[in-house]
Amino acid sequence: MLRISELKLPLDHPEAALREAILARLGIASAELLGFTVFKRSYDARKKSAIVLIYAIDAEVHDEAAVLARLARDQHIGPSPDTGYKFVPAARPAPGTPRPVVVGMGPCGMFVALILAQMGLNPLVLERGKIVRERTVDTFGFWRKRKLNTESNVQFGEGGAGTFSDGKLYSQIKDPKHYGRKVLTEFVKAGAPEEILYVSKPHIGTFRLVKMVEQIRAEITRLGGEIRFETRVDDIYVGNEAGVRQVQGVRLSNGEEIATRHLVMAIGHSARDTFELLYERGVYIEAKPFSIGFRVEHPQSLIDVCRFGPNAGNKLLGAADYKIVHHASNGRSVYSFCMCPGGTVVAASSEEGRVVTNGMSQYSRNERNANSAIVVGITPEDYPGHPLAGIAFQRELESRAYVLGGSNYDAPGQLMGDFVKGVPSTEFGSVVPSFRPAVHLTDLAPSLPQYAIQALREAFVAFDKQIKGYYKHDAVLTGVETRTSSPIRIKRNDADLQSLNTRGLFPAGEGAGYAGGIMSAAVDGIRVAEAVALAMAA
Ligand code: FAD
């Protein structure tokens, strides 16, 4: 099989043109091309009236060696790399070794458990939230009736934080071992559309994610894993073994104790009580940077026209996304984060008396608004003094948002133009906010520190140069966005992925500070599963 990259064709090319282009590029006759598959398809929309599709193709040809030799100088043609997943060669653990325990059934924990189960290591997964169907009822109940279940919500439950999301499945992580391909392949096996394997920015949307999570749970169980829901880890036992701190087990919310020497903590960025527990048990934790800001809603049509011009609405392109950055005069970076084309803004609280926003969409991405977090980067210098100070900082901002919103889980909101001018909003314009239960118009300035407000005001005006029409008076801002990434890092050794000071503890995924997003959390899960398998064999 050989790979052709950078094969460019016009957006509306007929299907047959692709085969023709492959033949022309390889300089072979039709009979010599035995077959081909699209490995990746992206687009270049810099020239809006002439958008170009860019393909990477895997082609099977009659005499591959001859073609490769003839085109040896073409840097876009070469043998297709092997992107298949290979399990680490780990020996069977000694008889009597307790099974590995995985805390959290988000994308990270799910992939730790799936890989361990595929290796025959029978993981036990402990998840504080409910199975995904019941969790959906609780989450929608909160959005409709303002009734928050602090153990079953957007953050907690089967599937983790990404379940009610846009389901974006791309990431900018380096992936030399093609773990991302393994994740996508497992998702397709679990019911995701095949196109996620080849489109450049795959996404699956909320409802499909729910079904896939159920399928993966069934697969883990079929392979000998066990998953317990509504089971929170409330304590961990760490012993001193010849001067080394070693994990020995966990205590569950029902009082049960479970022995293990291999404990994966894939707990996400919102398990603040569990972060506190780990800190109290002496696990090494440090503060890390994250970002704060607002969700912004524009009409999706505005973004589509700006990005795709006359090609707005083209089915292959779908609803347009955007990525924008502004370096503010006070030294802060302001950037778009977790942009959801054709989606909705969601209430993502997991604690009483606090409001936090996020975004989600369905596969079709056909809601009328585009939403994105617009956030300001902050560092531990903004919340100094304690490794967990970032959590207190997030809580403070989320509590302020709760009060500004009317103390009933409505989110505080403001029109973009009013925010920039510093006047409270009283009436919505053409953009109808999608957040449920409701958006309470007010002045958002007291919701964030002054440096963030100043940077955001400057950025909204500046973004108009990047996306014409972005600085729109009646675009709606909703606050506050605080859970952009984990405020802590549970540091681990690079070599064996175990905690810096606690053997047998594998900090993993977003909560531990080693991932940001569904794909990178799942990829980290694979890496950690391999580390666990190797440690169990040792
Ligand atoms: P999580 O998904 O947070 O999973 C952690 C799990 O651990 C949770 O289920 C939790 O209940 C459980 N847990 C915590 N503490 C305990 C305990 N003590 N005992 C037992 N269980 C425990 N990312 C994208 O890439 N694309 C998107 O489109 C996207 N959209 C998003 C939309 C929303 C609304 C949200 C909230 C997030 C979105 N994200 C998105 C981010 C993405 O969801 C996260 O990056 C990802 O889920 C992190 O995976 P994780 O497995 O590390 O942690």
Please describe what this structure looks like.
With 538 residues, this protein is of the alpha+beta class. It folds into three domains: 2-79, Alpha-Beta Plaits (2-Layer Sandwich); 101-286 and 489-537, 3-Layer(bba) Sandwich (FAD/NAD(P)-binding domain); 289-481, no CATH class. The protein is built from twelve helices and 23 strands. The chain has helices at residues 16-26, 64-70, 107-118, 132-145, 179-189, 205-222, 272-280, 300-308, 389-404, 416-421, 450-466, 518-537, and strands at residues 2-10, 33-44, 52-61, 77-79, 101-103, 124-126, 226-228, 233-241, 244-252, 257-259, 263-265, 286-287, 290-299, 325-327, 333-340, 344-347, 357-360, 369-378, 411-415, 439-441, 476-481, 488-489, 505-507. A seven-stranded mixed sheet has the order 14-15-18-13-21-19-20. It has a five-stranded parallel sheet with strand order 7-6-5-11-23, covered by helices on one side. A four-stranded antiparallel sheet has the order 2-3-1-4, covered by helices on one side. A hairpin with a 7-residue loop joins strand 2 (33-44) and strand 3. Helix 3 runs parallel beside helix 6 (205-222) and helix 3 (107-118) packs parallel to helix 12 (518-537). The longest helix is centred in the last third of the chain and has 20 residues, at 518-537. The mean pLDDT is 96. It binds flavin-adenine dinucleotide (FAD). Residues 103-109, 126-129, 154, 156-157, 160-162, 164-168, 232-233, 266-268, 271, 274, 338, 346, 348, 358-360, 509-511, 515-519, 521 line the site of flavin-adenine dinucleotide. This is NAD(P)/FAD-dependent oxidoreductase. Residues 289-484 form the FAD-dependent protein C-terminal domain.
